[in-house]
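mind reviewing these C-alpha cells:
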Amino acid sequence: MSKIALVDDDRNILTSVSMTLEAEGFEVETYNDGQAALDAFNKRMPDMAVLDIKMPRMDGMDLLQRLRQKTAMPVIFLTSKDDEIDEVLGLRMGADDYVKKPFSQRLLVERIRALLRRQEAVVTEEVGDTEETKVMERGDLRMDPLRHAVSWKGKDVSLTVTEFLLLQALAQRPGFVKSRDQLMDVAYDDQVYVDDRTIDSHIKRLRKKMRTADDEFSAIETLYGIGYRYNEE
C-alpha cells in the first residue's frame, strides 16, 4: 500500500481527497501546512507528496526545496487556476507534475498512479533484463535504472522520476531527436494531458542538475520547434 502525503490548508480538500485516495487503496496522511508535513517527513518519508503551493508557516515551494535536498520521491503540486508562474517555478524546482484547482479527483488519482508506476519501474529489481533496466553508459553518463542512480563524470546526480525517464529516453539513442510529444509519452500516461511548457520545464531542471556535476554539461541539445537530442560527448 503506497503512502501518500496530502498537504493543503483547505480542510475541505484534505477531507474529500483523502477519502477518495483511501477508497482507492492508498494510505493517506494529511497536513494543513508545510512545516507540519516536514516535521513528519523527517521521521518517516511517504511514497509521494501532493502539495498545495500557498500555505501558512511554510508554503509548498519552500517544502519542495527542503524535500529535494534529501529525496527524489514524486511530488505533485496543486495550483490555483491562474498560477502559471508558480507552475513553471515548481517544475523547475523539481516537482514531477501539477494539477490545477478546481480539479477532478479522478484526474488526480490517475496522475498519482502514473507517477507511482513510473517510480516502481525505475527502482524495482523484479523486472526483466530490457533496455529500460540495463545499466546504460554514454560517455561520461552512467544510469542504473534498478537503483534509480545517475552519475556524470563519476559524480552522483539526484533526479526525480520524471527527470530520470526523460534523460533515459534521450540518452538511449544519441544523436536522434525526440519530439516533445514523444517525451510526453515517456513521462506520462496517455490519459494525462500536459503541455509543451511542462516538458521544457523538466528539461531545464534536468540540465541544471547535471551542471551541478559539471558546469560545462551540454549533452542535451534543444532543436527549436522540433524537440531535444542527446549528443554523446
Observations:
- The mean pLDDT is 84.
